[in-house]
Amino acid sequence: MPNTNYIEYCFKIKPLQPTSDILMAELGEAGFESFVENDEGVLAYIQKKDWAPGILEDIHIMENPKVKISYDTREIAQENWNAAWESNFNPIRIGNDCVVRAPFHEKPEVAYDIVIEPKMSFGTGHHETTHMMLEYILEHDFIGKSVLDMGSGTGVLAILAAMKGAKEIDAIDNDAWCYLNAKENVERNDCNHIRVYEGDASRLQTRNYDIILANINRNILLEDIPNYVRCLNKDGLLFLSGFYEGDLQMITAKCEELGLKFEKNLEKNNWVAAKYVF
Asked: Which of 43, 37, 32 is nearest to 92 (CA)?
């Protein structure tokens, strides 16, 4: 994969929440690929080829008089990404049994020790949506299950599913960098039975799964839920995240229209992860 330069935006935000979450959601719609949250705000990254001078014109949260957002920008080479995220990435603990950490962190004494080198990919456990999806995986039986991790990013969800005993696992992401990064992380965690693919829901075709995990965004979920239902085995589970509490009714209506039953949802800082049963 050729080297790709990125534009880094360093946003300083007041108040920090929920402004940061809203900003990241809007930036994601504008083409930004990756985010690192810190005590002052957010670092946001977009490929230089996808950047334009008016990239922030449709970021409505920046026009809100109740919030204050300032920013600086710089160009950053892809090969320098490690230095950027290492200075911001701390280990994440999910419950008592799982830690998501970088290779340079000390090895913890937990049942599920996940080592992730995210580079430009989404999914370290820091964001609420990833954290909640990891919580769901910890709560449920994955032994012998067939699993799809759609929009897999770093591959962290697929890796935890594998550690919990899933038998067949597909991880799919439409971003080439995420695809390569997930392959590296799968190997790093000795989960070589995870099959990593570059692509979108069109790759599913005739495949079937006991459990589907999809942490994307509302619009893509609404478009792809019919594909997930078509691939879900009887009594299968669908876990969705990447949307706000205000979107839950819309997501649930689409699922119920296709024969799924809403069972529960988790919520963190207005982000939601929902569980559906087929």
From this structure: 37
The residues spanned by each domain of the chain are 5-85, 127-277
Task: Please report, as a single letter, which amino acid is at residue 17.
Answer: Q
- Overall average pLDDT of the 62-86 stretch: 81
Q: Kindly report the number of other CB atoms within 10 A of residue 6's CB atom.
A: 25
Tokens representing 128 are 């609420």
Q: Are 278 and 235 in contact (CB under 8 A)?
A: yes
Residues 6+ apart with CB under 8 A from 220: 151, 242
Token couple for 248: 């839950």
- CATH domain 127-277 topology: Rossmann fold (3.40.50)
- Residue 136 and residue 207: Cα distance in Å, rounded? 23
Cα-Cα-Cα-Cα dihedral sign, residues 228, 230, 233, 236: positive
**pLDDT tens-digit readout, 113-144:** 999 876 655 666 678 889 999 999 999 999 99
